[in-house]
Amino acid sequence: MKYSGWPDTGELVVGKIDEIEDFGVFVDLEEYQDQRGLIHISEVASGWIKNVRDHVREGQIVVCKVLDVNTESQQIDLSLKDVNDHQRSDKIQEWKNEQKADNWMGLALGEDADDETYTAVANELIGAHGSLYDGFKQAAIHGEEALEGTDLSEDEIGALVDTARENVSVPYVTVTGYVDLENASPSGVDGIRTALEAAEGNGEVPDEVDLEVSYVGAPEYRINVQAPNYKTAESQLEESARRAVAAIEGEGGSGEFHRERRTDDE
Predict the structure, then answer these.
(1) What sign results for the dihedral spanned by CA atoms 44, 45, 50, 53?
(2) How many CB atoms lie within 10 A of CB 125?
């Protein structure tokens, strides 16, 4: 996806060096449609420059700072020397993330999606979360809730969330579910305790997963799982509930797993 319009003065932009002249360097802006900028020789590097080609090469991807934008003369002035290593690294990573998100949009909307549909959906994601990548990231972590308040249809939200959860890696995600445990058999409270110990894993939970079971209100218990990715978190949540239900049934009681909280008070 490329933005229409013009970059802002002071903005960091990613470009590909297209043409090198004695007086400076022409750069195609990778994030903007049909936009080209100029890095004057004085903005290529600090100090005296004998040969511009000693500092840059054609086809090179660079990060530049926008010094000035003149829409009347169709000119964008850029600086290469005003961008430090930290800014360059962060901007390149941001650009790569947006390229990934662009591919995810294709997966979510399908190959037959027209430009108008793509742009409309992309603008909703950007409007809600600032960028395509952050939109997918939030959808992977929070599901449909991350896209509430947008003008996206239910089908579009579902497709975006499914794609996000299949493709986005986030540092940690948290999922929550609930299990009802009842035991009228002679084992009583001890049977409930056995089921809760089973829910907590009995040593079967992977090291990278943090799983916690807490009391909500009889007969409901909350299972909270934090894991490196959504798929692992969901799997561990379901396994925890399965162990608890199997354990309580083994004690002569009954159990039921559900995703939404049912008790009114903690």
Answers:
(1) negative
(2) 25
For residue 20, the Cα-to-chain-centroid distance in whole angstroms is 37
Whether 76 contacts 66, CB under 8 Å: yes
The Cα 150–Cα 161 span in angstroms is 14
Q: Which two tokens stand for residue 38?
A: 């100029």
Q: Residue 144: which of 157, 135, 162, 131 has the closest Cα?
A: 157
Element (H, E) at 76: strand 75-79
Q: What is the pTM (predicted TM-score) of this model? A: 0.65
User: What is the spatial distance between Cα 28 and Cα 14, in angstroms, rounded to a whole number?
Assistant: 9
Q: What pLDDT tens digit does each residue of the chain (266 aa) get?
A: 688 899 999 999 999 999 999 999 999 999 999 999 999 999 999 999 999 999 999 999 999 999 999 999 999 999 999 999 999 999 999 999 999 999 999 999 998 889 899 999 999 999 999 999 999 999 988 888 899 999 999 999 999 999 998 998 877 888 999 999 999 999 999 999 999 999 998 777 888 789 999 999 889 999 999 988 888 899 999 999 999 999 999 999 999 999 888 876 54
What is the CB neighbour count within 10 angstroms for residue 26?
16
Residue type present at position 177: G
**What backbone phi and psi angles, to 5 degrees, belong to 232?**
-65, -45
